[in-house]
Specification:
10-stranded antiparallel beta sheet; 2 domains; alpha+beta; 16 helices; 6-stranded antiparallel beta sheet; globular
Length: 538
């Protein structure tokens, strides 16, 4: 390792991420229950959040450079995204050994299977334009698939959704798929006409398929009348300002291209550059750390759901659709270096992997590996934080070091989730329910009760329970924090003369939204109002 550099960029404040369930917030001023359908965007509440995160940058830089040194990765680039902006990047080592030329922010690396998310964006663009349905049979757009022999008489026809979510039933094909990038369109057509063996029936199991995403690239080309590279350039890359990104290594200026290497008998051996071809939609993309930052920032901008302009190049709702599990994978238990047991569960979205653990409830990521290169992008929608990394060593293994970098960021105290906000209807209902706790009023109670409330427990019993609470606690005040689980459900604590009362409420799916569930009980004020942990203690 001959050089290390890092560069701090301006910290951005783009709207991203959605709030974690059961987070504390003080309610805004009540505007009445008439706006019951409104779901306010989740918000970060710590004014020092970005400064805290920034304090981890020196340690994070050391983490990445130490990783490259230990792993003998010739050259690397990494970046931190906060709220959809690339706020920090670093580079180290060499993009080319023979010329002793260093990696910089413009160095272009192959990102392999991270290309799949671009293919998914292209398919969703076509879907949003009304040109296809995700449940259409793939053979409608790729006629060579019409003759497929299915694994059972009752197997469904292969759909676009199956292809997007690795639910095709094709066998896992990473070793084989890596070597198909330069196949011509004619060769791929002949492969499909010759048949594809199935390992499972379509739509029944997760099985990673590069072949499936190559077929999606053919769908894009056949429907758009453009080659896949031309479509992606025109409809995604140009619109995002990704000028360094391409599917063809020959298009990258010689003074920007990272050369790929493998370790053989302790020595670096240069890998030949793989050309682009019919399988490019599954893994042919090349990009720089700055361009990748633009792209991942665009994917992160899907969060939270909110009002406002939706400028694309694909709808925010479609980006969120990509980042949800559409085909689950079996859960697994891992043991950390410290001996802690963790349950990890997840699956595949559309061109992206989705997971959750006790540490983070929603993780979106994809890695990429080809001879000569390894990359990863990973972000936390609830926290507005993402990390990207590129390396020019075969299958550079970024998983562990990115996890460690997230741990460093969490240790600053700045990794707090965006908090859900109460709807105006929930705020108004909280105020009225609190008034009932202080003093029962039949008219007020009747005005906020959903049709089931007195059927579930008679009004006389509810009134008697609140009367008993007042006898036990004395006068109560509605001046505590509001633990909001979502726009229509929450809990709050009322401080009383003796002790405290905790109130839980859920609104009904009606306009106006009235109270369908209500509970009030005396609690120990010394025990703080808190959300349950993501993973309960054993």
């Amino acid at each position: 390792m001959t050089r290390m550099g890092h560069r701090a960029l301006a910290w951005g404040t783009a709207l991203v991420t959605f709030g974690l369930a059961s987070a504390c917030t003080r309610p805004p001023e009540s505007t009445g229950a008439s706006a019951a359908a409104t779901v306010p965007a989740a918000q970060f509440t710590d004014p020092d959040r970005q400064d805290k995160l920034q304090s981890a940058l020196p340690a994070m830089d050391s983490l990445f450079t130490d990783f490259a040194t230990r792993g003998r990765v010739p050259g690397i680039a990494w970046g931190l995204l906060v709220d959809g902006e690339l706020v920090h990047l670093g580079t180290a080592g060499l993009r080319e050994l023979a010329g002793n030329t260093p990696v910089d922010s413009n160095t272009v690396f192959r990102i392999a299977s991270m290309t799949k998310s671009f293919t998914a964006v292209a398919i969703l663009q076509l879907r949003d334009a009304g040109k296809l349905s995700l449940d259409d049979p793939a053979e409608r757009y790729v006629p060579e698939l019409a003759g497929l022999g299915y694994p059972s008489d009752d197997s469904p026809r292969l759909t676009i959704r199956n292809l997007l979510s690795h639910a095709t039933g094709f066998p896992e094909d990473n070793p084989w798929g890596d070597r198909q990038l330069d196949a011509t369109d004619a060769q791929m057509s002949e492969m499909m006409r010759s048949g594809i063996p199935f390992s499972t029936a379509p739509g029944t199991a997760y099985e990673y398929s590069n072949y499936g995403f190559a077929i999606l690239g053919r769908v894009v080309a056949n429907l758009s009348g453009m080659s896949y590279p031309e479509y992606v350039r025109t409809n995604i890359l140009d619109r995002l300002g990704m000028t360094a990104t391409t599917l063809q290594a020959a298009d990258v200026p010689a003074d920007a291209l990272a050369h790929g290497y493998r370790l053989e008998d302790g020595n670096w051996v240069e890998e030949p550059s793989l050309p682009d071809g019919a399988f490019g939609p599954m893994g042919g993309m090349l990009t720089s750390i700055t361009d990748l930052g633009r792209y991942v920032g665009f994917l992160m901008s899907a969060w939270p759901p909110r009002d406002g302009a939706d400028t694309g190049p694909v709808r925010r709702s479609s980006l969120r659709e990509m980042q949800q599990i559409h085909r689950p994978r079996p859960a697994r238990v891992t043991i950390s270096a410290e001996g802690a047991t963790q349950l990890n569960a997840g699956g595949y979205g559309f061109g992206l992997g989705i997971s959750q653990s006790c540490a983070f409830g929603h993780v979106v990521a994809h890695s990429g590996g080809l001879p000569g290169f390894g990359s990863q992008m990973r972000w936390l929608p609830e926290y507005g934080v993402g990390i990207i990394a590129l390396g020019n060593l075969t299958y550079t293994g970024w998983g562990g070091v990115i996890s460690q970098a997230l741990d460093l960021l969490a240790a600053t105290g700045g990794m707090q989730p965006r908090l859900p906000q109460p709807s105006p209807a929930l705020v108004a209902s909280r105020e009225m329910v609190s008034r009932l706790v202080v003093e029962w009023n039949d008219g007020l109670a009747d005005s906020i009760a959903a049709m089931n409330l007195y059927l579930d427990e008679a009004k006389d019993r509810r009134r008697a329970q609140l009367d008993l609470l007042r006898q036990e606690t004395g006068s109560c005040r509605n001046d505590g924090v509001f633990l909001v689980e979502n726009a229509l459900r929450g809990r709050w604590r009322m401080a009383c003369d003796t002790g405290a009362v905790e109130v839980s409420m859920t609104l009904a799916p009606t306009i106006p939204a009235k109270v369908q569930y209500l509970d009030a009980r005396r609690v120990d004020p010394a025990v703080p109002l808190a959300a349950p942990p993501a993973c309960p203690a054993p």
